[in-house]
Prior knowledge:
The complex is a heterodimer of chains A (about 575) and B (about 240).
Chain A: E1 2-11, H1 15-27, E2 31-35, E3 51-52, H2 64-74, H3 81-101, E4 115-122, E5 130-135, H4 141-155, E6 159-162, E7 164-171, E8 177-184, E9 190-200, H5 221-228, E10 233-234, E11 239-246, H6 256-259, E12 263-265, H7 273-276, H8 286-298, E13 310-313, H9 319-325, H10 327-337, E14 346-355, E15 359-360, E16 366-370, E17 376-384, E18 389-390, H11 402-424, H12 433-439, H13 441-448, H14 455-469, E19 473-474, H15 476-494, H16 507-531, E20 540-541, H17 549-552, E21 555-559, E22 564-568
Parallel strand pairs in A: 1-2, 1-9, 2-6, 9-17, 15-18, 19-20
Antiparallel strand pairs in A: 3-5, 4-5, 7-8, 8-9, 10-21, 11-14, 12-13, 13-14, 16-17, 21-22
Helix pairs in contact in A: 1-4, 1-11, 2-3, 3-11, 5-16, 9-10, 14-15, 14-16, 15-16
Chain B: E1 2-8, E2 18-24, H1 33-43, E3 63-66, E4 69-72, H2 78-81, E5 86-90, E6 97-99, E7 102-103, H3 106-114, H4 134-138, H5 157-161, H6 168-179, H7 187-194, H8 208-212, H9 219-234
Helix pairs in contact in B: 3-6, 6-9
Amino acid sequence: MRTISFDGVIVGGGGAGMRAALQLAQSGYKTAVISKVFPTRSHTVSAQGGITCAIASADPQDDWRWHMYDTVKGSDYIGDQDAIEYMCSVGPEAIFELEHMGLPFSRTEEGRIYQRPFGGQSKNYGEGGQAARTCAAADRTGHALLHTLYQNNVKNQTVFFNEWFATDLVKNSDGAVVGVIAICIETGETVYVKSKATVFATGGAGRIYASTTNAHINTGDGMGMALRAGVPAQDMEMWQFHPTGIYGAGTLVTEGCRGEGGYLVNADGERFMERYAPNAKDLAGRDVVARSMILEILEGRGCGPEGDHVKLKLDHLGEEVLESRLPGICELSRTFAHVDPVKEPIPVVPTCHYMMGGIPTNIHGQALTVDAQGSDEIIPGLYACGEVACVSVHGANRLGGNSLLDLVVFGRASGLFIEDALKQGIELRDATTSDIEEANQRLISLNEGSAGENVAALRKELQGVMQNYFGVFRNGEFMQEGVKKLADLKERIANVHLEDKSNAFNTARIECLELQNLFETAEATAIVAEARKESRGAHAREDFTERNDDEWLCHSLYYREGQKVDKRGVNFTPRTVDTFQPKIRTY
Amino acid sequence: MLQVSIYRFNPETDATPQMQDYSIDTGGKDLMVLDVLELIKAEHDSTVTYRRSCREGVCGSDGLNINGKNGLACITPLSETVRKNKLVIRPLPGLPVVRDLVVDMSLFYAQYEKIEPYLQNDTPAPAIERLQSPEDRAKLDGLYECILCACCSTSCPSFWWNPDRFVGPAGLLQAYRFLADSRDQATDERLAKLDDPFSVFRCHGIQNCVNVCPKGLNPTRAIGHIRTMLLNRAA
């Protein structure tokens, strides 16, 4: 097997990966991005409503501390306060950098960046009413951001391995990560990509569910690779169900619709969020809105012949506002719901959207595990940022607009830290031939297998189990059944049959490898979801309906070996502000 | 049963490409063309090869030639394209085929990179954003939304003949996106690099690009603006 060597290798060409790559490319270190799709096809492109940050455009008095308060509250108090402090305080600098790079933000009359109201955003620590803090480029903010980052990587001559797929981490005899095995999809060649710093920016895994806003490519590749390499996963029970996925199609309708004045109605035409969240109404936290929608449906007030969805009303905003502020939504709604939002409400239903959990990291992107004494331990050579990472700034529930901020701020932070570490010199023992062979074992087994089940059928079964047993509302008995069903799938997915053994652009092979990553992500989710015996943020249990701070004001950790579940402390010690103490969370 | 005919070519086993036919039960639903491909790959033939990602028309992966017209498979409903129960899917024309419906887009991307698709402004950046009026920002609408799907450039006869020298509609749309940006200061350098007989002037106003753009953008109009700027510059 050929070896290619770099100072830094970034796996994933979405927003986080390209922001990290840009930082490293500017530093002059030999850097490469491995992306399974051409970078602008990454899922960041689908982000719509905006990037939340206190740049004080809409409100000159706005303060990053208010944003921090909202984010801590939104996380249901298991977001790490040092990380949230870092994100919210560094955010404005990171946003202005993007603007200087050319990001075509929408503008105010003063020529500043346009900001819109989003869910969970308040002024003055929840006392001053709704804040408009989400910076937007119409409703195509992710597209604008991703293309701007790609363009600036082109400018800085970043090396891209486009349509290459990383299969597994390579570790040396000290347990340090020293690169990845990767396949060139076009030719089928497998190489060892050696690196002093390996950054996972592989994104989410929404495809573990049957109904998701996520792209086909969101298959948890980083989670799979990390778990197989013995890296723990944190807070995997925390999955965000976005209130407004288009009914039937699953495609996203931005929260910005409600930010601009849209609202949800049930079959009676009632604006039901007034009952569930009297103050914030339709702009309560996403977990709160999603649950309220499901309750409306369960109580018989759903829309349509099956009574299985609600509607998002926008027509009262007028054609001009819709076409200028929400043009992409008008397009998506006409294509996928066959509804013109200028005239009729859009049928919507809560849909799997975002993985709050991921690889535990510190604010520099360094991946962490926990030692026998319960102290954090850095995993040498491995970094993570963006959705695959759990810094954790989102805790049990992410606020809208915070994912784009997360990926820009922590992609940048990872790049800055690695640049510094490379300057000081990184010495890692070389991987031996057997270390590399071990990492390549999964691919070899797949290539040599001659029996087993079809990838599409197994994937469908897996997605069905997750959808049915680990959805918006959860129940212990039911989840135990789901865990059993996953146990049944485990060997079958490990032995998935690859019929097509050809080399050139073999997407069937990639789909098999992706399915195994989906399984690792799903299994981690299921086991910790069953273990966390409380309701917090997005994790809502019918058998444990209350938040239990005595036992569960903590992160969950999951280790693949022995399916071990552990707890890890939440950071309550920001550097420059007082701790935000846990309170009852209402909107 | 929908009759689907797909362009097949595997460089490892096939000397020449051929069309392969499938009879597909759509369950009477008005599926998207991508759904049909996914159905075929899942249930009929796992070797059928194509690109896809977002499945909602924003990532630009699945530009294909569908019943003779370039478009995105994920947002083209059968009802819009199928006539006489027949769906013919070919790769985007004019680019080398890697396998089946996957084309080598290197030439397309090279033209994009050639126009230096990034903001150029050497003045020291302010502590906040650079200001831009809503009117100036509006000039970027219809330009920045390009998803690089290559439907336009691969439907353009001028690009077919000179893919190495004619920038093509997608690249030129982005060239104009930066020329039109009030924050960009490289107008003169940008125009100088486009000022030759091929880069811009090979556009003959055929407008296939406008006809196929899945995002409803108008590269021909942008090219017209660049032409005017070039002519004014020469005058």
